[in-house]
Amino acid sequence: MILLVNGPNLNLLGEREPEIYGTTTLTEVERMVSEACAAYGLEVRSIQSNYEGALIDFIQEHRHLAKGMVINPGGFTHSSVALHDCLKALSFPVVEVHVSNIHTREEWRRKDLIAPATRGQVVGLGTHGYYYAAMWLCSQLPQLGDYDADRTPADLPPEELPPEELRPVVGGEYEG
């Protein structure tokens, strides 16, 4: 099972500031991620909440069943030590997604408390970022074995590499 976790205001995807966040709705995002994960035989459990405690309760409730997580913490990105600590306690990889590029927006959006608790980020690619995060996560699960958040991605022989268009971009270290 893959968890899809969305924080505050993401229930307004498709209508809130479409010039920044696009016109794709959260329901469409959930369907896209579910279909991507289904190709790997994985189901998706989704939550969206404007309440930090509800997200943490959901994550903790599913922590022993899940194999990975795609999370867009929304505004909690910049403020939630509690969500950061919750993610650090997990034994599976987490990929953080942001529809817009938070690193090129207002200065206060560049402070990311969640990134250090995740395996990686997909930012600024619109709602397609959810798809890319899910595909990377699902494609890596067989190679991850017992997950270690500090381990680099598994090295694969050339014949096992995913098609070029599905390969994650590798390089650089997040300095958040």
Structure description:
This protein has helices spanning 18-21, 26-38, 52-62, 81-88, 128-144; strands at residues 2-6, 44-48, 68-72, 94-98, 120-123. The protein has one domain: 3-Layer(aba) Sandwich (Rossmann fold), CATH 3.40.50. The radius of gyration is 15 Å and the shape is globular. The protein has 176 residues and is of the alpha/beta class. A 5-stranded parallel beta sheet has the order 2-1-3-4-5, with helices on both faces. Helix content is 30%, strand content 14%.
CATH architecture: 3-Layer(aba) Sandwich
Low-confidence stretches: 146-156, 164-176
SSE order in H/E notation?
EHHEHEHEEH
Structural class: alpha/beta
How much is the radius of gyration in Å? 15 Å
Helix content: 25-40%
What would the principal axes of the Cα set say about the shape? globular
- Superfamily at the CATH H level? Dehydroquinase, class II
Strand order of the largest sheet: 2-1-3-4-5
Total domains: 1
Count the helices. How many? 5
Q: Write down the CATH class.
A: Alpha Beta
CA(first)-CA(last) distance:
29 Å
